[in-house]
TrEMBL record, chain A:
InterPro entries: AAA+_ATPase, ABC_transporter-like_ATP-bd, ABC_transpr_LolD-like, MacB-like_ATP-bd, P-loop_NTPase
Protein name listed in UniProt: ABC transporter ATP-binding protein
Organism: Rhizocola hellebori
Transmembrane segments: none
SUPFAM superfamilies: P-loop containing nucleoside triphosphate hydrolases
Automatic annotation (TrEMBL), chain B:
Compartments it resides in: Cell membrane
GO molecular function: transmembrane transporter activity
Name by which UniProt lists this protein: ABC transporter
Domain ABC3 transporter permease C-terminal: 274-393, 716-831
PANTHER family: ABC TRANSPORTER PERMEASE YTRF (PTHR30572:SF4), MEMBRANE COMPONENT OF TRANSPORTER-RELATED (PTHR30572)
Family, as annotated: Belongs to the ABC-4 integral membrane protein family.
Keyword Membrane: yes
Highest taxon in the source lineage: Bacteria
Keywords noted in UniProt: Cell membrane, Membrane, Transmembrane, Transmembrane helix
Membrane topology according to the record: Multi-pass membrane protein
Species the sequence originates in: Rhizocola hellebori
Transmembrane segment boundaries: 270-294, 315-340, 360-386, 407-427, 433-455, 486-507, 709-737, 764-787, 807-825
Organism lineage string: Bacteria, Bacillati, Actinomycetota, Actinomycetes, Micromonosporales
Family annotation (InterPro entries): ABC3_permease_C (IPR003838), MacB_PCD (IPR025857), Macrolide_Exporter_MacB (IPR050250)
Length: 253, 839
């Protein structure tokens, strides 16, 4: 038996947390947000992270995305180890390997939809791939709204612009934090479909934090967190199975 | 309600500190100038209180020429030995001493240069013993015609010691004396302020300083034991009759000090004027801060309204904030003003050798500090307060930011106010200076209102410069986001820049016009002149003139004598030209009537602007009291640089200094200018104040003086610009705060720290360069208006100070970078996580 080369193992996952602890405060006021969490987010898959409020799901995502530091353990995006990177390193990582979709305030009000979409590339000083850009905006269906400013777009349209912005730089992984939290169910369904479609069509890796079982059902896999630990996971979930799992976890904890 | 107001005040520390700082700086300037003038005023009081110690009554003559400070130096009248005898006969007079004291005794130091005082008088007089606070420190009193004593500070400055041979310039050319003693003053003083004193024996002092023996400038009386000075004063008044001023010692001391205080008062008013500009700019800053605070608190205010607060309470809550800021800033500003005033007093005292009488806090400083601090903040807060009261209660329930209101109303009122301001300026230039100032202020307000309309296109044009990079483009877009805010921030900077540009335009135009006139009309090669005080100019020995004319290459020497005089009862200037026909050629003068030949001793030639005609008889009372009449024999057309009445040689005997103060030297075409200059300088060796210059050098020396004046104005307006920069800092800090989420988003999608800082810096630079450009435009407008208004005074064309304007524009950009430092650091430190979390 040979020891597998670690590099191989690392590249197998788009992002990976390895024995991650996240502790806020010290002594009496100490709060453990993540407790020895190890997850592997597979390349080309759509992973949802679920859990009740305070379960640590957002913290986990922030740590994986390099927005927050971990107390103990290791975090990798692709083959880059995040722990120990300084601000410049993290900025470069976010610029080159990560895409974000937030619940709201995704867009700069001063820029048009197109400028917003191309902003990460502009910041990185990269030339957009026109064909890919066209593909992306076709996918999200924004062709006729590119010159509009965010204030002239509906909430759903704004989130679609945000999706397009995350997709256009073809990041290693896209982190979506409750991307449909502020949308009605129809617009939310549309956004989730684009995300799903980009995984299927373009092999994009997406990690989404949500507390909505329907949203989670669009994912390939759901990871459940409770009290800072991974407590369960589901492959090819349906809304019913997700709800059942949540109920069960609620009973256990 | 009050509690809620104070709480929200505390929650907004940063922006309040910045707007408070603007008020603080203005208040500091105001109270500082009061503290300064107060402590200097008391110092002068002290200085002159002991100058008359031991003198109970003092007698002087009515001034020979009584003019205000604005018109020139008053010329004191003179007393005679007969007056002294009359005083001595008066009952109650124990002792009467005739004093000689006149400006213009210049000591040539060990280095061969005249000891300068930068304005204060250099008295020459008679040694009357250890009276009036004088104390002989070293050596003996002067007893022979060739002996002098000087005050200790002068001896030190000149580098001379007892026993030295010392050259002294007076109304006579240089004479050499033996320094036999050095004196100081009561209280171990080496000097009384910057004033210097050279004391001769009485007849020498009379001859050199007053032109004639047997003359005095004042008589100091000591009353007999038991006599009341007031009674003796009245007795002397009765005895002497008209034409004399009789004062008790304390009255005279107060009168001397009040003369100095008048000058101080003018100085104080100038400082307060600049403080006013700074506060005016401060109003912009506070107005902006309160507007932003109100806009940001829309929800909070609406909630209060929904909970039942009245509109009055809303206005009150904002005004209470303003009052609190105003009070705190006034207290701190007063403290800072006291510090600055004390510091400046010390500096002034050490520079001018005035013994400082201690720094106090005058009531005027306290009152003005609080009045100014409170009034300025309240004025600035009224508009935002009214706006706060208009917030509808439903705004609390809606997720809307305040929509951008249209700028039409603002623009129209701005245009109207600017037009009114311009009208006032145009009218005021000719009629009334204050009206013009009011016009300038009105125009500033108008342009400030208009600037919101200008902001969008200006920002978009300026921003193009920076748009090559993503942070630059984002910065440009940010500065275009809220045109009102950008505009008012830029307008604050505009005020300072406009004023310096305006003054600069006027000065540059005036200088250029003068240079143009000189180039056109002045056809001599060399000018002999010296820099002096306004009353008495440096002179040289008139007997040198024939020898100057004999210098190889010299074809003509036209020397000027001059002094003040009362001409037909009005203060004026009498000059005598030794070779007027030469001057006619040198200055390209053309005759209007009569002859321009050299006027006879009792004749005078006038310019066509004088109001006199051929054969008019002009009566003159000369500075030394001589009364004469002169007949007009010629009228010439006034040139741009040469004008006035040119008297015959008979006028010289009426002057205090019967020596030429200036000479124009014409050289032949093939003359060696350098050699001629050297020979002239050699001839003038005993007049170290005189310089031999060509026209360009002469003008350069004059320009150096105006450059100093400009520099002073720029320094004083620097405070207004500093406050404007605080405004930029404030606006940016608030923008950064408002856009925390956006900054978080930008950082999340990969904008680096440096790039974030660059974005903020560009935003700042767009604002400040816009403000500077606006200032340049308004300043050029103001300057042009004034230059046009003064066209009659010889300002022929408007010349823009391009170089300086370029510097101001660059300064605008630099100031933007500086203003951006703190907000940019703050923006770069934005915690991404905190910024994007929504709960």
């Amino acid at each position: 038996m040979t020891i597998a080369a670690p590099a191989r193992q690392i590249t197998a996952a788009a992002a990976r947390a390895d024995g991650v602890w996240k502790v806020y405060g010290t002594g009496e006021a100490q709060v453990v947000a993540l407790r020895e969490v190890s997850v592997e987010l597979q390349r080309g898959r759509f992973t949802a992270i679920m859990g009740p409020s305070g379960s640590g799901k957002s913290t986990l995502m922030h740590c994986l995305a390099g927005l927050d530091s971990v107390t103990r353990g290791q975090v990798y995006v692709g083959d880059t180890q995040l722990t120990g990177l300084n601000d410049a390193g993290l900025t470069k990582l976010r610029r080159e390997k990560v895409g974000f979709i937030f619940q709201q305030f995704n867009l700069l009000p001063t820029l048009t939809a197109e400028e917003n979409i191309l902003l990460p590339l502009a910041i990185a000083g990269r030339k957009p791939d026109r064909a890919w850009f066209q593909t992306v905006i076709d996918t999200v269906g924004l062709g006729d709204r590119l010159s509009h400013r965010p204030s002239q777009l509906s909430g759903g349209q704004q989130q679609r612009v945000a999706c397009a912005r995350a997709l256009v730089s073809r990041p290693e992984v896209i982190f979506a934090d409750e991307p449909t939290g502020n949308l009605d169910s129809r617009s939310g369904g549309e956004v989730l479909n684009f995300l799903r479609q980009s995984v299927i069509d373009h092999g994009q890796t997406i990690v989404m934090v949500t507390h909505d079982a329907t949203a989670a059902s669009f994912a390939d896999r759901v990871i459940f967190l409770a009290d800072g630990s991974v407590v369960d996971s589901l492959d090819d979930p349906t809304a019913e199975r997700v709800l059942d799992t949540i109920k069960r976890i609620g009973a256990d904890h | 309600m009050l509690r809620a107001t104070l709480k929200s005040l505390l929650a907004r520390k940063l922006r309040l500190i910045l707007s408070g700082l603007a008020v603080l700086l203005g208040v500091m300037f105001v109270s500082g100038s009061f503290v300064l003038t107060d402590s200097l005023g008391r110092s002068f009081d002290n200085m002159f209180a002991n100058s008359l110690s031991g003198t109970d009554v003092i007698v002087t003559a009515d001034p020979a020429i009584n003019v205000s400070e604005m018109e020139g130096e008053p010329v004191p009248g003179m007393l005679t030995s007969a007056d002294l005898a009359a005083v001595r006969e008066t009952t109650g007079v124990a002792q009467a001493i005739g004093d000689v004291q006149a400006d213009g005794a210049r000591v040539i130091g060990a280095n061969g240069k005249v000891v300068a005082t930068f304005g204060p008088p250099r008295f020459g007089g008679n040694w009357t013993g250890e009276v009036g606070g004088r104390e002989l420190r070293e050596g003996v009193a002067p007893s022979a015609a060739n002996e002098i004593v000087v005050n200790a500070a002068l001896a030190k400055k000149a580098g001379i010691k007892v026993g030295d041979q010392v050259g002294v310039l007076t109304t006579q050319p240089k004479q050499t004396f033996k320094l036999v003693g050095i004196f100081g003053y009561e209280g171990r003083l080496d000097s009384r302020g910057p004033v210097t004193e050279v004391l001769f024996t009485e007849p020498v002092a009379q001859k050199l300083m007053l032109g004639k023996e047997g003359k005095f400038t004042s008589i100091s009386v000591t009353t007999a034991g038991g006599s009341d000075p007031v009674a003796v004063r009245d007795a002397l008044k009765t005895k002497l009759g008209k034409g004399y001023v009789v004062q008790t010692g304390s009255e005279a001391a107060a009168a001397i000090a009040s003369g100095f205080k008048e000058a101080l008062d003018v100085f104080n008013k100038i400082l307060l004027g600049f403080a006013g500009v700074a506060l005016f700019v401060g109003i912009f800053l506070i107005l902006n801060t309160f507007s932003i605070i109100v806009a940001q608190r829309t929800k909070e205010l609406a909630l209060s309204r929904a909970l039942g607060a009245s509109r009055g309470q809303m206005i009150g809550s904002v005004l209470v904030e303003a009052v609190v800021i105003g009070l705190i800033a006034s207290v701190l500003g007063l403290a800072a003003g006291y510090g600055v005033g004390a510091l400046l007093s010390q500096l002034f005292a050490s520079f001018s050798e005035v013994q400082l009488a201690g720094v106090g806090l005058p009531l005027a400083a306290v009152i003005s500090a609080f009045a100014v601090g409170l009034i300025v903040t309240i004025i600035a807060a009224i508009m935002p307060a009214i706006r706060a009261s208009r917030v509808p209660p439903v705004a609390a329930l809606q997720e809307v930011a305040t929509p951008d209101r249209p700028l039409t109303k603002l623009t129209v009122s701005g245009a109207i106010i600017t037009a009114i301001g311009s009208g006032l300026i145009a009218f005021g230039i000719a009629e009334n200076v204050w009206l013009m100032f009011a016009g300038v202020l009105t125009a500033f307000i108008g342009v400030a209102l208009l600037s919101a309309f200008l902001a969008r296109p200006a920002v978009s044009v300026l921003g193009r410069v920076f748009s090559w990079s993503v942070p630059g483009k984002l910065g440009r877009l940010n500065s275009g986001r809220n045109p009102r805010r950008t505009a008012i921030t830029a307008a604050a900077l505009m005020v300072g820049i406009a004023l310096v540009t305006g003054v600069n335009t006027i000065v540059t135009s005036a200088e250029k016009s003068l240079r143009g006139s000189v180039a056109e009309e002045f056809h001599a090669e060399l000018i002999v002149s010296g820099q002096g005080s306004p009353g008495l100019q440096p002179t040289f020995d008139g007997t040198l003139l024939p020898r100057m004319k004999q210098v190889p290459g010299v074809t003509a020497v036209s020397a000027e004598y001059g002094d003040q005089a009362m001409i037909d009862g009005k203060p004026g200037w009498v000059s005598v030209n030794t070779d007027f026909p030469a001057a006619v050629k040198m200055f390209s003068l053309s005759p209007v009537a009569g002859s321009l030949a050299q006027p006879g001793p009792d004749e005078v030639i006038v310019d066509d602007d004088s109001g006199h005609h051929l054969s008019d008889v002009i009566s003159v009372q000369h500075a030394n009291g001589l009364q004469k009449t002169y007949t007009v024999t010629g009228v010439y057309k006034q040139g741009e640089i040469y004008g006035g009445m040119v008297f015959g040689s008979g006028a010289i005997e009426g002057m205090r200094q019967q020596l030429p103060s200036m000479a124009f030297v014409d050289l032949s075409d093939n003359a060696n200018e350098a050699a001629a200059r050297k020979s002239l300088e050699a001839l003038l060796v005993d007049s170290p104040e005189m310089l031999v210059q060509n026209a360009d050098e002469y003008l350069d020396a004059q320009s150096a003086e105006t450059a100093q004046f400009l520099l002073m104005i720029q320094v004083l307006l620097g405070l207004a610009i500093l406050i404007a920069v605080l405004g930029v800092v404030n606006t940016l800090a608030l923008s950064v705060l408002e856009r925390t989420r956006e900054l978080g988003l930008l950082r999340a999608i990969g904008l680096g720290r440096m790039a974030t800082m660059r974005m903020i810096t560009v935003e700042a630079m767009v604002i400040t360069v816009f403000g500077a450009a606006l200032g340049l435009a308004v300043g050029v407008g103001l300057g042009t208006a004034v230059v046009r208004g003064l066209a009659d005074e010889g300002l022929k064309e408007v010349v823009l100070p391009w170089e300086q304007m370029g510097i101001y524009l660059v300064l605008g950009a630099v100031v933007g970078v500086i203003a951006a430092i703190l907000p940019a650091i703050r923006a770069a430190r934005t915690n991404v996580l905190a910024a994007i979390s929504y709960e």
